[in-house]
Amino acid sequence: MEREQGERDLSSPAPFVIMGAIKAIFRREGRMGLKKIEAIIRPEKLQAVIAKLHAAGIFGFTVSQVQGRGQQRSSAGVYRGHVYQISLHPKVKVEMVVSDAYAQRAVESIVQAAQTGEAGDGKIFVLPVYEAYNIRTGAPDETIDDMRSTK
């Protein structure tokens, strides 16, 4: 089978693929792992959270605008003379996958940057990640913590 120029031969494992397989075995045995961190925060705290994550060496994350309700009370709004209840509050969801070595650092950075001490500050969820794959290559992605700043 002939390959086009620039196409990789995925039938023969390169050293990085072998190393990735070894890391995956260790991860399954509980020696090292990945964590997905999901933080729901106030929108006005996003820039401070991003700055803290960058200072902690974490550059890869996804940000989404969401709405939600926790312990923060609903409030009344007025629109064109009509009073209505605001029960879902605008929030920002920050998601990242990091190695166990970076997980606590990420959580602490988010708490330090997003905490006001009032209801509605948000929540942080930490979940195990068993596998990650690079969509472009289809190979297991073992470079989660190798993301560098694009500044």
UniProtKB/TrEMBL annotation:
Positions where O-UMP-tyrosine occurs in the chain: 84
Molecular function via GO: ATP binding; enzyme regulator activity
Protein name: Nitrogen regulatory protein P-II (Modular protein)
Similarity field: Belongs to the P(II) protein family.
Keyword Cell inner membrane found: no
A single Gene Ontology CC term: cytosol
Gene Ontology terms describing biological process: regulation of nitrogen utilization
Keyword Phosphoprotein: yes
Keywords assigned by UniProt, alphabetized: Phosphoprotein
